[in-house]
Amino acid sequence: MAGLTALAVAMGIGRFAFTPILPMMQEDAGVSITAGAWLASANYLGYLLGALSVMAVPIRAASAIRGGLVTIGLATLGMGLQDHFAIWIILRALAGIASAWVLICTSAWCLERLEPLRQPVLESTVFSGVGAGIALAGGSCLAFMHLHTTSARAWIVFGVASLALSVAIWPVFGAGDRAPSTARRLPRRAFAWDREWIGLTLCYGAFGFGYIIPATFLPVMARQAIRNPEIFGLSWPMFGAAAMASTLLIGIVRRLVTNRRVWIASHLVMALGVALPVIWPGIAATMLAALCVGGTFMVITMVGMQEARDVAGGRATGLMAAMTSAFALGQIAGPISASYLHGAGGDFSAALLVACGALVVSACVLGSLSRPGHFGVS
Q1: Could you please report the per-residue DSSP string of 210-237?
Q2: How many CB atoms lie within 10 A of CB 186?
Q3: Which CATH number applies to 191-378: 3.30.390.50, 1.20.1250.20, 1.10.630.10, 3.40.50.150?
Q4: What is the pTM (predicted TM-score) of this model?
Q5: Averaged in consecutive runs of 10 residues, what is the pLDDT profile of the chain (378 residues)?
Q6: Domain spanning 1-186 has what CATH number?
Q7: Distance between CA 76 and CA 159 in Å, rounded?
């Protein structure tokens, strides 16, 4: 439960609270789509720097989790107390760095302790915290819009909530706990670049590029389709609920088929969700996109990391680091490309089609990388 809560704070607030708040910031702070894209990319750049720094900085996992949670709470609180765009950029970058620390170190901390129990449902429960955090943040913003709360106050509420939840789980990540040092677990020469390593890394990067456009602008797209906040505000809670449910169910699916097959299928489902608002404009397609993208992005994260362990064995950390870095680069490129590709009035069709194409191509690449017998029952 401590792991679930930490991931809910790191991802639901530190990474993605910005998504449901963006329409509110457009309304009361005059934030444009281009400005929103740069704020999102600052957060994703911070995530990249945080992921890379975990590989190099010798710090205990428990200390990284605690420090990251406090940083997320303070950076989120600062978004509501400041109104200067340059400061917002810095705060979003800091939240991204801290989110990477909490996500990576919480995953390592929890999975090491859960491994002896051999119960995949417990691992899935930890990762369902991401979807739970997204759903709660989205539902809160829906309530804020109904109450005509300003975006600044929303940021303050999320900041206070982050700090309160951090205090609640603080003792679990005790200073005396023998959590593994992130630096000690990483071998110096952990890379063996072959066709499969390169292919998996590029496909994981395509995933980061493909999902991040709807993950950043979904409520904005829903708001364009229908102005009623009680309807368009549902898109982000639906996204989070789908992520939470799919993460819990994937433990069952992984007993029937291989991780690679789940990964390929998830890319295709996500591609469909990304393309739906273009093929069938309207609020219904946007809501279906929320289910398709939300229901696959955490699944791909889980099976992608598992696939890295299966492929690289003792050198899995190197492959995971490369995949995470590619993922972060894809996330940075996505919002920036959307800011240049969106048409008059904020049309996202071109950006969504590019993202869809990247996902379909990467699914084909994953299929071509499969080893003999890789598609059988696991």
Answers
A1: HHHHHHHHHHHHHHHH---HHHHTTHHH
A2: 16
A3: 1.20.1250.20
A4: 0.79
A5: 93 89 89 85 88 77 91 96 94 94 83 76 83 88 89 95 94 62 43 76 92 75 67 74 85 77 93 87 82 88 80 69 83 76 65 89 87 43
A6: 1.20.1250.20
A7: 5
